[in-house]
């Protein structure tokens, strides 16, 4: 993939509020493998590494903002369109723990069924 194409993808990802489709669902894994083991054979390897890392950072920042919004609005489900498994797994543990804490807080705020009023 040429550098200009990656720059356009990065710029497009920055401008869009939602996640844009990546060229492969394994873009980060493939990039790391290729650049770690064959960077001598890849023209402009350092530029490619930087651009892919930029896209990753932009997408993870969007994911954090989306997760924050999801939690604040107390949503029940979320769409994960155009996210890769690696991106989802990056925030999966945090989001799961946050939702668990919210559930515990909500259930502790609701009166329990065992509480009975007594008439004197």
Highlighted features:
120 residues, 0% strand
Explain what this protein looks like in three dimensions.
This protein is mainly α and 120 residues long. It has four helices and no strands. Helix 3 packs parallel to helix 4. The longest helix is centred in the middle third of the chain and has 28 residues, at 45-72.
Summarize the model shown.
The protein is mainly α. The protein is about 65% helix and about 0% strand. Helix 1 (about 5-15) packs parallel to helix 3 (about 45-70) and helix 3 (about 45-70) runs parallel beside helix 4.
Secondary structure tally: strands: 0
Summarize the amount of helix as a percent range.
55-70%
Share of residues in strands: under 5%
**Helix and strand composition category:** mainly alpha
Element pattern in H and E: HHHH
Instruction: Characterize the biggest β-sheet.
Output: none
**Radius of gyration over C-alpha positions, nearest whole angstrom:** 21 Å
Our measurement of the CA-to-CA distance between the termini, rounded to an integer number of angstroms, reads 80 Å
Tell me, briefly, the overall form. elongated
Question: Could you name the ranges where pLDDT drops below 50 across 5 or more consecutive residues?
Answer: none
Helix run count: 4
Report the mean per-residue pLDDT as an integer.
85
